[in-house]
Design a protein that fits this description.
The protein is of the alpha/beta class. The chain has 20 helices and 21 strands.
Length: 569
């Protein structure tokens, strides 16, 4: 009986040991599948026991000696592990650190996670945990971080990153009692270059000018692309007279010789506006605004100009007014006093509502209402128009979700249309609400679509893939050709109201509108006439073949539309 019992107990122990071995094997296989290696680092003995390192990381770890592992870490990345080893915390604690190991194929990033066990005196006794090769993830994080701060076309800093550098330079100049400067260089007549040589050549000119400006700078200077044809240059330490010297050098670098493009040699020049800091501006926002004001003055005299900002009582009053308006808009956003008004757009033949355009309105505390024209230009100049545009998009989508029978058009400001990152965020937001996308129309202004053609062509393409329709607003106010519209693949053009107002009394405008509508029909593009003010004008436009009307004659923008009662098609 005893023999039998011993035999049973032995078999049970064998089963337990086998189960334990199977558990260990499963854990090991799981670690290997996750590309992890286990380690047990005996700090006092100076040894590391590895499990799975040879299989998972054969090129990086091949010794039980801790010194071998430490020596392999790139010196500038040893700090975190050395702090952990030198710790005298009496409590156990988890850790997560990254180190880099040198290899023949380049640096390899390893993430170590585990628990630190202290000895009786608090010194680190053991480190036990897992190690994983996270090189690809680290590279992707660095790549995304780079893209978040860099202009995609030129590789220079983008506007936001340059503004951060500028803010730091201004604060350093204040604290160290020295000076810096911001210069804004604008490529002259880029729109003409685009029309003459094509947008591909225009992009090559932008890249060529950016490269020449960068090579003309000192090692401590910083360059970024602030808009489609503009570059910002930050001189971190300079005297006032040096601004003139640097500006002359930048302009000479651009005009020195033609820029090679696939369309041929293109001659280019740039105009420069500058502001001396911190005397003329105490913040990065003020500095960029005043450099732009100086640039406007430089361009007023023609090509290849230069001007430095000079204080002006009138300009200071205008600046304070802009700041007051932007503050009012920010407060309205916080208090939900920024609203959308809805103006009907009617079908020309049936005179029934086709859809509504969403127009921004600001409701003041006293109940009075301001139209977008009173505050959007200030928001663009003060750099907060992205917030306003985002509100308009989110509010429009919310209305589309709440009212399944309506179609709405929302505007994208010219400033937002020049920001690729913002345009991409717009697309991603719409993609998250794709169920309502077929009932959304996005309106871009003609000038923005032309000046930032490549960004907007990509933007339009992505929207159309989601089922969104795209319209060009204020058509005829600028100089976009129908060839460009065809390349953009827009669905609709909205004829600028200045050509439509009192159309029956203007034979010249009749010729323009009739020609425009005929061209649009040939390109299978729908037309909307803005500012339609009478039945006579509407009849004339209908005869020309205009598809839709918009104007006070057919309905003013209202904050509370009666969608439940109005027919929507």
């Amino acid at each position: 009986m005893v023999i039998v019992l011993n035999t049973v107990l032995q078999k049970r122990e064998d089963v337990i040991q086998l189960s334990q071995l199977e558990d260990e094997l499963r854990l090991r296989l799981a670690a290997q599948a996750a590309h992890c290696a286990a380690f047990d680092w005996n700090v006092a003995a100076g040894t590391i026991q590895w499990d799975g390192a040879t299989d998972v990381l054969p090129l990086h770890i091949d010794s039980v000696q801790a010194s071998s592992f430490l020596d392999g870490i790139i010196p500038e990345r040893r700090g975190d592990i050395q702090v952990l080893l030198a710790s005298r915390d009496p409590n156990s604690a988890s850790f997560l650190i990254d180190v880099e190991i040198a290899s023949a194929l380049g640096a390899v990033v390893l993430t170590m996670s585990g628990t630190r066990f202290p000895a009786a005196d608090g010194r680190t006794a053991r480190l036990t945990g897992m190690l994983r090769d996270t090189t690809e993830r680290s590279r992707e994080v660095r790549r995304l971080s780079y893209l978040a701060t860099r202009d995609e076309l030129t590789g220079h800093l983008n506007r936001n990153a340059l503004r951060e550098e500028l803010a730091g330079a201004i604060e350093s100049a204040k604290s160290e009692n020295r000076n810096c400067a911001l210069l804004v260089a604008s490529i002259d007549r880029l729109a003409m270059i685009n029309d003459s040589f094509g947008f591909d050549a225009g992009e090559e000119v932008i890249m060529g000018v950016g490269d020449r400006l960068a090579r003309a700078l000192r090692g401590t200077d910083v360059i970024g692309r602030t808009a489609g044809n503009k570059f910002g240059v930050l001189l971190k330490n300079c005297r006032e007279q040096e601004i003139h010297v640097v500006a002359a050098r930048l302009r000479a670098a651009v005009r020195s010789s033609g820029i090679e493009t696939r369309a041929g040699l293109v001659a280019g020049t740039c105009s420069v506006g500058a502001v001396w800091l911190p005397q003329a501006a105490s913040t990065s926002q003020e500095a960029m605004l005043r450099a732009e004001q100086a640039l406007d003055k430089a361009r007023a005299s023609g090509r290849d100009g230069f001007a430095i900002y000079e204080p002006s009582p009138q300009r200071e009053t205008a600046r304070l007014r802009l700041m007051q308006i932007s503050d009012e808009v920010m407060q309205a956003l916080k208090e939900n006093r920024l609203r959308l008004a809805y103006q009907p757009i009617v079908a020309a033949r049936s005179r029934k509502v086709s859809h509504y355009e969403c127009l921004l309105r600001l409701v003041r505390p006293d109940g009075s209402v301001q139209s977008a024209g009173h505050f959007v230009p200030a928001c663009e100049q003060m750099g907060i128009v992205h917030l306003v545009d985002r509100f308009a998009l989110e509010a429009t989508i919310a209305q589309l979700k709440a009212h399944p029978a309506i179609t709405l058009a929302v505007n994208v400001s010219g400033t937002a249309a020049s920001d690729p990152a913002w345009l991409q965020s717009f697309v991603e937001f719409v993609r998250g609400e794709q169920a309502v996308a077929p009932r959304l129309i996005v309106e871009l202004t003609e000038t923005a679509a032309l000046h930032h053609f490549e960004e907007n062509a990509r933007f339009v393409s992505q929207l159309r893939e989601l089922g969104v329709r795209v319209a060009i607003d204020d058509f005829g106010a600028g100089y976009t050709s129908f060839r460009n519209l065809q390349m953009l693949h827009v669905d609709t053009v909205k004829i600028d109201g200045s050509y439509v107002k009192d159309l029956s009394q203007s034979p010249e405008n009749q010729v323009f509108v009739r020609t425009l509508v005929g061209l649009a029909r040939n390109f299978d593009i729908k037309t909307v006439a803005e500012w339609v003010g009478s039945d006579d004008d509407a009849a004339l436009l209908q005869n020309f073949g205009v598809d839709y009307f918009q104007g006070f004659h057919f309905g003013e923008p209202v904050l509370e539309p009666g969608w439940a009662r109005e027919p929507v098609f």
